[in-house]
Specification:
- By secondary structure, the chain is mainly α.
- The chain is built from six helices and two strands; from the N terminus they run αααβααβα.
- It has a two-stranded antiparallel ribbon with strand order 1-2.
- The longest helix has 36 residues.
């Protein structure tokens, strides 16, 4: 019986004092690295497939643009508007005089005229106009 207890004590001592060798410790790190690369590769392939599908079908574009366009509106309101942005440059806007509207408005008000109705932009339309993107409008009919 004492031989049996000595054998189990020696077995416990050798397993407790055993250090992992560097080859067995490096394998999990290699596997983790390989798994990381596989995950990124799969993600890249999925994104590439989605971009290819969108380029061929425009499904995402056909759903997102109408949803966003519904947020671009303006509404006429009484008096001068604080929710409007006039263009600041561009050959078409300068040729048509749109860039000078604030100056015209101020000069007319100085002469006693009043703004009775002016559009109010939605928050999204204000954001786009501040970036220099022209607001949507109905083009005049030709004929």
């Amino acid at each position: 019986m004492s031989a049996h207890s000595t054998y189990s004590e020696n077995l416990a001592d050798t397993s407790a004092n055993r250090q992992p060798d560097s080859a067995s410790a490096a394998v999990p790190a290699e596997l983790k690295s390989r798994r990381w690369w596989i995950k990124w590769l799969v993600l890249l392939v999925v994104i590439a497939a989605a971009v290819f599908y969108e380029a061929r079908t425009s499904v995402l574009q056909s759903r997102l643009l109408p949803w966003y366009a519904a947020k671009l509106w303006y509404q006429d309101g009484d008096g001068p508007s604080g929710q409007i942005i006039f263009p600041t440059g561009g050959p078409f806007d300068e040729r048509r005089g749109y860039t000078r509207i604030p100056d015209f408005q101020q000069r007319l008000q100085d002469q006693g005229f009043a703004v009775t109705i002016q559009p109010r932009f939605s928050p999204e339309l204000m954001r786009l106009a501040s970036w220099g993107i022209a607001p949507p409008y109905r083009e005049p009919t030709v004929g």
